[in-house]
Amino acid sequence: MFQVMPILMGIFFVVFFGVIITLIVKSISTWNHNNTQPRINTAAKVVTKRTSIHGGGETNAHNSYYVTFEFESGDRLELQVRGDEYGQLVEGDKGDLQFQGTRYLGYTRKNH
After folding, report:
1. What does the pLDDT look like over 69-100, one tens digit per residue?
2. Phi, psi of 69 (to 5 degrees)
3. Residue 59: pLDDT band by 50, 70, 90 thresholds?
4. Beta strand pairing status for 94-100 and 103-109?
5. Helix H or strand E encompassing 45
């Protein structure tokens, strides 16, 4: 039994650090991909909004905010936005969306 514990602990640490390294590589890859994409400014409509809560408890919860935009072609794109932007966007808004890859840059509402 005592000979198995060091092996199990070693496997645990290898898996743990493997997951951390994988997350770091994925984040850097996404960041790099977005930087190589052109900045696009196009007409879009706010179709829907949603939130995602991660973590738990009273102090460890984290909200992520997402907005789905629809282009004139009918294509849709969901982008993660900051909380203050999320609160100002309303379903049905029409305006100009600025984005780069999967990175939301801004939205300018057009007056109806």
Report:
1. 999 999 999 999 999 999 999 999 999 999 99
2. -110, 145
3. confident
4. antiparallel
5. strand 39-54
Q: Please say whether the beta carbons of 101 and 109 come within 8 A.
A: no
Residue type, 39: R
Q: Which residue has the tokens 């600025």?
A: 98
pLDDT in tens, 25-58: 999 999 999 999 999 999 999 999 999 988 876 6
Q: Is 18 left (phi over 0), alpha (psi -120 to 50) or beta?
A: alpha
Token look-up 């496997």 returns: 11
HSE of 84, CA atoms in CB hemisphere, 13 A: 1
CB-based burial label for 93 (10 Å; 0-12, 13-18, 19+): middle
Q: Which residues on adjacent β-strands are paired with residue 104?
A: 99
Alpha helices by DSSP H, listed for the chain, are: 4-36, 83-88
Task: Find all residues with CB under 8 Å of 48, minimum gap 6, and list them.
Answer: 67, 68, 91
Q: Which residues pair with 54 in a beta bridge?
A: 62
